[in-house]
Amino acid sequence: MSKSERPSRLFRNLNAKVASIPMILTALVVFVGGTAWTVLYSFTNSKLLPRLNFVGLDQYYRLWATPRWLVSIENLLIYGVISLVFSLVIGFILAALLDQKIRFEDTFRTIFLYPFALSFIVTGLVWQWLLNPDFGIQGVIRNLGWTSFAFDPLYNSSIVIYGISIAALWQGTGLIMCLMLAGLRGIDEDIWKAARVDGIPMWKTYLFIIIPMMRPVFITTLVIIASGIVKVYDLVVAQTSGGPGIASEVPAKYVYDYMFFAQNLGQGFAASTMMLLSVMIVIVPWAYLEFGGRKRV
């Protein structure tokens, strides 16, 4: 490209570039600046108010020596694996069923997607009632005659995180189904016809042909699910408030409690930074797969 062409490219779509300046400044100041501010003060001993009294890695040492934080990380891993695996599997199966051009498809799609329209607080309260041992699922079945039936995950510290995961799957699977259905509808009909002509079983068509072709959809879906996993907070608060004891503690609740109740900003900032690191672990591979791979093509 000649030097005379560079200024013309610089001023191309000038109005759009000028209009994007406020958004760029907002992103730099609010997101990048706020992130840098949080990381900086995570190395201080700030309490009620932030102060630049650096203590090195003391907040991080204290963080990883706190049983409550370790429990929250363990819960996040369990919740994350359940959410990733089951929401993907259930969402894809529902999408594959709806893709068969069944009757009342719009009705079923609305029913499955409706829980996603509810806030996590509403979802948590609904499932708190459903899982209540006195008048929820357990109470109803016992009233039918099965008096030995037990199903009270929110009141059992060893399985409480699984009860929370049930509510999360109920709310989020519908969105995954819609994303997968959009990906399936983008597959050329000739591919299905060729597979039927060759006598390939449907499950093999999905497993070895359709799913690899939907790679961008799966990557985007994984990022959406992973971001929701890291920041889970309101669902836990609505169902258990972190109980019994600290059995259902999650990192986001740990951060909130230390910053606003314990008045220990330094510890809250350190936990926030660790959450940021977990988000980066998800975002960086996604960006590489989405953009780095295209450059090689």
Task: Describe the 3D structure.
The chain has 297 residues and is mainly alpha-helical. It has a single domain (42-296), classed as MetI-like fold, CATH 1.10.3720.10. It is built from 15 helices and no strands. It has helices at 5-10, 14-19, 21-41, 58-64, 67-98, 105-113, 120-130, 137-143, 160-185, 189-197, 202-213, 215-230, 234-239, 251-260, 265-296. α3 (21-41) crosses α15, α4 packs across α15 and α6 (105-113) packs antiparallel against α9 (160-185). The two termini are 22 Å apart. The mean pLDDT is 88.
Essential attributes:
single chain; 297 residues; mainly alpha; MetI-like fold; flat; Sugar ABC transporter permease; cell membrane
Report the strand count: 0
Strand content: under 5%
Major sheet, described briefly?
none
Question: Based on CA inertia axes, which overall geometry fits?
Answer: flat
CATH topology: MetI-like fold
Poorly predicted ranges (pLDDT <50, ≥5 residues)?
none
What is the annotated CATH architecture?
A: Orthogonal Bundle
The secondary-structure class comes to mainly alpha
Q: What is the succession of H and E elements?
A: HHHHHHHHHHHHHHH
- CA-based gyration radius: 24 Å
Helix content: over 70%
Q: Just give the CATH class.
A: Mainly Alpha
How many domains, in number, for the residues? Answer: 1
First CA to last CA: what distance?
22 Å
Pfam families: BPD_transp_1 (PF00528)
Transmembrane segments: 21-43, 76-98, 110-130, 159-184, 205-230, 269-289
Subcellular location: Cell membrane
InterPro entries: ABC_transporter_permease (IPR051393), MetI-like (IPR000515), MetI-like_sf (IPR035906)
